[in-house]
Model the fold of this input.
Amino acid sequence: MSLVVYVNGEYVAQEKARVSILDRGFLYGDGLFETLRAYGGRVFRLKQHWERLSRSADRLFLKLPEPLSRLKEIIEELIRRNQLSDAMVRIQVTRGEGALGPSIREPGPAGLVVQARPLQPLPQGWSRDGIKVTLFHSSASRISEIHHKVKATSYLSNILIRKLAEEQGFQEGIFLDDAGHVCEGAASNIFLVQDGILKTPPAGEFVLEGITRQVVLEAASELGIPFHERNLTAGDLYQADEVFLTNTGIEVLPVNQVDGVIIGLGGPGDITRALHRQYLKIVEAEK
Done:
């Protein structure tokens, strides 16, 4: 079945969808995106994703083309037209068509593309056994004058880190900044557990304030698991009892090795499992 997508005011078949070659998202990666997940046809935490998108747009001097209420209608219509239940949704906003060059003095109307596709299950064994990750030192990058990380469509660094990790036999690459602090994965936030305490790098210019990350912190609070947002090093990861990654698609994914160092007992830990169960309870309660 051909999927239907939303492109700048129209619902069209995916294979016929087009954007202008003058769109600044195409030319310069001048835009933002959000990835959301639908459970049973209902999008989880749409309002939080929208609020993050709005904050990011303000920081980039970008005017969003539609309000939250209209975006909700578009997503629901795409889920209906594509006959989806469990699905991934991607919202992409660009600055629209504009003159060549860095100036944005006369931006056109913002571009909006929304896609909804069936959820693809994780590779067999990842959730059961965990995955292997590797660290990339002094690799974290930031956008000049932006002190809170945004989900920009200029995603090349993330693509290259993931590719390099995969070529070395790892499933994810982890960015470290110049000071040696652990930041995040190419497409994930990272957590560790040490002596029963949950730890994760603080959100900021190198670390995205992930929506799933926030839900996991909510789950920890509900379960009475102490947690800290603090700077972490490679050594902290190597010595951790448990390590896991989070994002919208993977939810809570255990890590069994970091740079070949076996974490804990080499599989998902008790706190990782408990947090994933609580995460799913939160999802279920909000359906």
Q: What stands out?
A: Residues 126-285 form a domain with the D-amino Acid Aminotransferase; Chain A, domain 2 fold (CATH 3.20.10.10). The first helix runs from residue 24 to 28. Helices lie at 24-28, 46-59, 68-81, 126-129, 156-167, 211-223, 234-238, 270-285.
